[in-house]
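[RESIDUES AND BACKBONE]
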Amino acid sequence: MSLKPRVVVVDHSTETADVLQAVFAPRGVQVERRRSPARRPGAPRDAEVFVLDEECVAPPPSLSPPAPEMRNRVVLGSPASPPAAGPAAATSANYLPKPFQYAELIRAVETLLAEREAQAQPAPERRAA
């Protein structure tokens, strides 16, 4: 059974969530805006892609790899703070400096959703020769 894909947006502005909602809702993707990247109790982990505004995310206690549910994310950050400098972006390959184009963000989210879907597919069974 495949979980309904969900994009979680943590951003001060509602505009980012509104744009992603307009693009992804017709495709059956739920877009949810939150004040924090913390997972809701009972929410499935495998269904989420995060879009995080670096200014909204408290720095983690260390720069260790993110929790599994946070690996699929796009970090929106300041051009003055390159990915290597920002704690939220330190482990993110999907870093978009502000100002960014929504087309770039949409492509990054589409890529992550496709990767999540591919990971969710069961591996084909191997037959003994």
